[in-house]
Design a protein that fits this description.
Structural class: mainly beta
Helix content: under 10%
Strand content: 35-45%
Number of strands: 28
Distance between the termini: 44 Å
Strand order of the largest sheet: 26-1-2-3-28
């Protein structure tokens, strides 16, 4: 039948099928395989997925208990569930990630247009990066970066993940440490970029950039730009100031923007950068206060537009650092438990409405405190064959399970 249909019409039909059926269609014939794995088909399907605005969340619930040789830390398979980001919070699917970390668990850098980036960089010397597409159960191990300890000596780094011009990009910002100067952090940093389309790293020049991005800091991707926390030393003063460092995926340049004046002299563990709706956001927890403040930048890039959006009473909510802004503005979080550190806590996730101050306990059990949430979108990225380091979970005997809409994940 496809021989009698224009290719544009065939693409329009196939891209509207459920993802599982699209993947099955690649076995129909060689021409369908070539069509479905082509960049044009993949981008058309992605744009259609984005336009549907079906909000779903991918949640890391637990890590399989095992033992490694480093300090007897826990390590093992990581388990994820997908939930509809609506009033029901019903379960949609369950996945496991086939690689375990030698350091206990993988750091989730972020998600973008269906792919999730993991970094095994919680301990010096382990810097492996993985791109994972849970919806088609395929992943790729990124090649070794250009800047390493063996090539450049000691360093600290952070990683960002985003999308531009129909291509996924990973940016790695590396500050070398000068041992002869007592481990002094050097600026400007070394910057390298990995593009999925080429499968390789390349270095770029960022000019005279004097800010320092904090080691392995969390990112926020908004408007085609990655954002992290950084510091800059004030001229003529010993004191440093906090600020937001950005990397534009289009022009591949580093930039910076100031924080609200009341927050710029706090350390990074008291703050986190995030995305609230379509606004850049800051969560600020002063060390000696029992309140947590959420700021938003009303006009992107305009530092004077920072506005305090909410104040959270920590006497009401035992607030953990890991959190996620939901589609409706509620905050998804895993609370601490008394004097027990939140990363050893064992309990249900909660959804907190910062307007009404109401708390809703969700039927999602966060088993060992490694709670992390990213957006979930079905995508055909990484579908184009098993060569070049791509592998399917089935190669390791692993499957994903999809849940009916009415079934609640647990």
């Amino acid at each position: 039948m496809s021989d009698y249909l224009p290719q544009d019409a065939l693409i329009d039909i196939l891209t509207r099928l459920p993802l599982k059926n699209i993947v099955q269609c690649i076995t129909v014939c060689k021409s369908w395989y070539a069509l479905i794995t082509s960049p044009n088909f993949r981008n058309t399907h992605l744009n259609l997925s984005i336009s549907k605005k079906e909000s779903r969340l991918l949640i890391r619930e637990s890590v399989e208990k095992a033992r490694t040789g480093i300090d007897n830390v826990q390590s093992g398979k990581e388990y994820f569930s997908v939930h509809w980001d609506d009033e029901t919070f019903d379960g949609y699917a369950k996945f496991d990630f086939p690689y375990s970390s030698f350091t206990g668990y993988l750091r989730i850098v972020g998600s973008c247009n269906g792919l999730v980036l993991f970094s095994d960089d919680r301990v010096c010397g382990t810097k492996t990066l993985y791109l994972w597409n849970p919806s088609i159960r395929k992943f790729v191990t990124l090649p070794r970066p250009i800047v390493t300890s063996s090539s450049h000596g000691a360093y600290m780094h952070t990683v960002g993940f985003g999308f531009h011009a129909n291509d996924y990009k990973v940016v790695r910002v590396v500050h070398l440490l000068r041992e002869e100067q007592g481990g002094r952090i050097t600026v400007p940093p070394e910057v390298e970029i990995y593009e999925l389309s080429t499968g390789s790293w390349r270095t770029i020049s960022v000019g005279k950039f004097s800010c320092v991005i904090l080691q392995c800091g969390p990112q926020a991707f908004l408007n085609g730009v990655v954002h992290w926390f950084g510091t800059i030393r004030n001229k003529g003063k010993r004191k440093t100031s906090q600020l937001i460092v950005s990397f534009d995926m289009k022009n591949e340049q580093l930039g910076s923007m100031m924080l609200p004046a009341c927050a710029e002299h706090y350390w990074d563990w008291e703050m986190r950068v995030a995305v609230y709706g379509d606004l850049l956001s800051l969560i600020h927890k002063p060390k000696d206060e029992v309140s947590c403040y959420i700021w938003v930048m009303k006009e992107y890039g305009v530092e004077k537009s920072w506005s305090k959006q909410f104040t959270i009473d920590l006497k009401q909510v035992n607030f953990a650092r890991e959190y996620f802004f939901r589609e409706n503005g509620d905050i998804l979080m895993a609370p601490s438990r008394g004097s027990t550190p939140y990363y050893y806590a064992d309990g249900n996730l909660i959804s907190y409405d910062p307007n009404s101050k109401q708390i809703k306990r969700l039927r999602v059990h966060e088993k060992i405190g490694l709670f992390y949430v990213v957006t979930y979108m079905e995508s055909l990225a990484l579908l184009e064959g098993l060569n070049g380091g791509l592998r399917r979970h089935e190669d390791l005997g692993m499957e994903a399970s999809f849940l009916p809409k009415e079934e609640v994940g647990s």
